[in-house]
Amino acid sequence: MEIRDSSLYIVIPVHNRKEFTRNCLQSLRQQTVKGCKVVIVDDGSVDGTGEMLAQEFPEVAVLRGDGNLFWTAATNMGIRYALEHGAERVMTLNNDTIASPKFVEAMLHWSEREPLALLGALNVDFNSQQPHYGGEILNWPLAASKRLLDFLPREEWKGIHKVSLYPGRGLLIPREVFEKIGLFDEVKLPHYMADYDFTLNASNHGFNVFCNYDAWLYIYPEEGGDHKIRRLKSLRGYYQHLFSIKGGGNLKNYTKLTLRNCPKKYLLPALLTGYARRIVGYWIR
């Protein structure tokens, strides 16, 4: 019996990287669940992405930006479209991912059992075929996280596990969450950390955040913008890491995230330790 769900909208922001987008969309076509809507937000691609989408994926809704949306505003554009068209669940997804055939099925399985929860997916390194990221537990005083894959027994790598936060790379969000807390903050966090901020904010408003170990999403860990900046190991890369809009260690973004979400009793150590980790970490990681 064919499984169908027309209330799930999958929102994918893209800027160039046509081949990643093609492979991602092909994996979504092969899902065991049919009927889900896919929304691509093409933010000013100049590599033929628009033409490829029109020719090869006519079923995909394509929204267009001018190249200055970055991740947060592009994602919000897609989410607004989804909600306006009746979405009950929205999944945010990056184009440099490959969904396993039962990925959507496994996400919906647990979403039906935890209808008000946000669900992330188990990220698996495409090249090594090994689990790479399965959520984390945040320690505010140390400004650090413990990754579940580092301490969760292998026999428990199944089902859902509660986490502190989750990135937007394969994040399933019920409509009720948007209705209560709004969208991602594209003004204060235009690119990095908007997803972490959103899931922390949702948790602070009573919504659980889980990582779904039954849903496998293949990723390319080295393709992230900050990974590329970290590989530079140069003064230019160091500056970009700490201050550019695509820098994962951006001090301004970390300050905003912490002030908005950290419990007051941990605020000072979280800020000081977090700054130190970012200032030093570029050279030692």
Task: Walk me through the topology.
Elements: E1 3-4, E2 8-14, H1 18-29, E3 33-34, E4 37-43, H2 49-56, E5 61-65, H3 70-84, E6 89-92, E7 97-99, H4 103-113, E8 118-125, E9 131-133, E10 136-139, E11 144-147, H5 148-151, E12 160-162, E13 171-174, H6 175-181, H7 194-204, E14 209-219, H8 225-232, H9 235-243, H10 251-261, H11 267-284
Parallel strand pairs: 1-3, 2-4, 2-6, 4-5, 8-14
Antiparallel strand pairs: 6-13, 7-14, 8-9, 10-11, 12-14
Helix pairs in contact: 8-9, 10-11
What does this structure look like?
The chain folds into two domains: 3-221, Spore Coat Polysaccharide Biosynthesis Protein SpsA, Chain A (Alpha-Beta Complex); 228-284, no CATH class. The protein is built from eleven helices and 14 strands. It has helices spanning 18-29, 49-56, 70-84, 103-113, 148-151, 175-181, 194-204, 225-232, 235-243, 251-261, 267-284; strands spanning 3-4, 8-14, 33-34, 37-43, 61-65, 89-92, 97-99, 118-125, 131-133, 136-139, 144-147, 160-162, 171-174, 209-219. The strands form four sheets. It has a five-stranded mixed sheet, with helices on both faces. Strands 7, 8, 9, 12 and 14 form a five-stranded mixed sheet that branches. Helix 10 packs antiparallel against helix 11. The chain is globular.
Summarize this structure briefly.
This protein is α/β, with parallel strands linked by helices.
Q: Which stretches are poorly predicted, pLDDT < 50 over at least 5 residues? A: none
Percent range for helical residues?
Answer: 40-55%
**Number of helix segments?**
11
The total of beta strands comes to: 14
Describe the sheet with the most strands: 5 strands, mixed
CATH topology of the largest domain: Spore Coat Polysaccharide Biosynthesis Protein SpsA, Chain A
Question: What is the H/E order?
Answer: EEHEEHEHEEHEEEEHEEHHEHHHH
Q: Between the first and last Cα atoms, what is the distance in angstroms? A: 49 Å
Whole-number total of structural domains: 2
Mean of residue pLDDT values: 94
Q: Report the CATH C-level class of the largest domain.
A: Alpha Beta
Helix/strand structural class: alpha/beta
Residue share in β-strands:
15-25%
Radius of gyration: 18 Å
